[in-house]
């Protein structure tokens, strides 16, 4: 058998950077300790751009390439664009933790101990009273349920938490594309309503709203929209509201499962917004 004379060091730097761009982000630290040259290439912007292009999250802009020369910012840009959900405690498994209650609600951080736990005006339960959770919606055991009273919950999302210096991208022609989706269902014997919106820079932007008639089926609501990057924080608030439409003296409102907010940083182009309520 002929001797294998392959020598990684002899490859052109561009080829080596391309090979290292396949390294998973979780393995970067271990691979970087193999050699000083590997550490340098892993942190080279050529490697990062190659990695971003492979995963379809590179804007393809020379300006972005220039702005992300800092490998730490490259990594932050990569993490933010790949993060599947910026919302926390989406199904209220930990009570109202991370969700800002309305003035009508009481702060209650008691852990969920059964299928009928109260958090403020909300209930946390399983798929009781409707179809099982749709497979497309992802994993989860509980869902949040609005009551016969008007229920509101909200979370503040600060993009600078994941991408410090995001304001620099905004001042150089980039914006944030927000992707939203959620699954909602009625109790089988109740009418209810649900709506969601984003608050940003003093504006209220509706994501979706639906009146649910008695039934068991889950409905997917989704939308994408673009936000300008106005400062170094780039913070917006996600808000959900809902209640029973029959005003029964019980918790029989809209059931909400796995709401998702994710983002992509993209170059400024013509507005591109679409809504697929009931998709």
Question: How would you explain this protein's 3D organization?
Answer:
The chain has 279 residues and is α+β, with helices and mostly antiparallel strands. The strands form two sheets. Strands 2-3-4-11-6-9-12 form a seven-stranded antiparallel beta sheet. It has helices at 13-20, 28-32, 36-42, 45-54, 62-67, 71-82, 166-170, and strands at residues 100-101, 117-119, 122-125, 143-145, 151-158, 174-185, 192-200, 203-212, 219-228, 235-244, 255-267, 274-275. β2 (117-119) and β3 (122-125) form a beta hairpin. α1 crosses α4 (45-54) and α4 (45-54) packs parallel to α6 (71-82). The radius of gyration is 23 Å and the shape is elongated.
Strand residue content: 25-35%
Strand line-up of the largest beta sheet: 2-3-4-11-6-9-12
Number of strands: 12
Q: Tell me the major beta sheet.
A: 7 strands, antiparallel
Rg estimate, integer Å: 23 Å
Shape: elongated
Order of helices and strands: HHHHHHEEEEEHEEEEEEE
Task: Give the N-terminus to C-terminus distance in angstroms.
Answer: 59 Å
Instruction: Report the average pLDDT across residues.
Output: 78
Summarize the structure.
This protein has 279 residues and is α+β, with helices and mostly antiparallel strands. It contains seven helices and twelve strands.
């Amino acid at each position: 058998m002929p001797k294998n004379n392959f020598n990684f060091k002899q490859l052109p730097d561009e080829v080596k950077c391309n090979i290292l761009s396949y390294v998973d982000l979780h393995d970067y630290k271990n691979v970087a300790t193999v050699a000083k040259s590997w550490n340098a290439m892993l942190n080279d912007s050529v490697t990062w751009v190659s990695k971003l292009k492979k995963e379809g999250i590179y804007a393809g802009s020379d300006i972005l390439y220039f702005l992300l020369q800092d490998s730490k910012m490259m990594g932050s840009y990569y993490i933010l664009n790949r993060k599947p959900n910026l919302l926390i405690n989406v199904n209220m498994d930990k009570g109202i933790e991370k969700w800002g209650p309305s003035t009508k609600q009481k702060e209650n951080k008691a852990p969920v101990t059964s299928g009928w736990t109260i958090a403020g005006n909300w209930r946390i339960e399983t798929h009781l009273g409707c179809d099982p959770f749709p497979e497309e919606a992802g994993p989860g055991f509980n869902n949040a349920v609005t009551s016969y009273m008007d229920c509101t919950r909200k979370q503040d999302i600060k993009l600078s938490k994941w991408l410090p210096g995001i304001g620099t991208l905004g001042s150089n022609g980039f914006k944030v594309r927000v992707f939203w989706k959620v699954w909602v269902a009625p109790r089988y014997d109740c009418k209810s309503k649900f709506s969601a919106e984003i608050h940003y820079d003093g504006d209220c932007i509706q994501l979706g709203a639906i009146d649910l008639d008695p039934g068991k089926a889950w409905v997917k609501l989704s939308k994408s929209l673009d936000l300008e990057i106005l400062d170094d924080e780039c913070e917006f608030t996600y808000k959900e509201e809902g209640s029973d439409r029959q005003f029964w003296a019980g918790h029989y409102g809209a059931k909400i499962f796995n709401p998702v907010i994710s983002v992509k940083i993209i170059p400024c182009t013509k507005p591109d917004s679409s809504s697929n309520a009931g998709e």
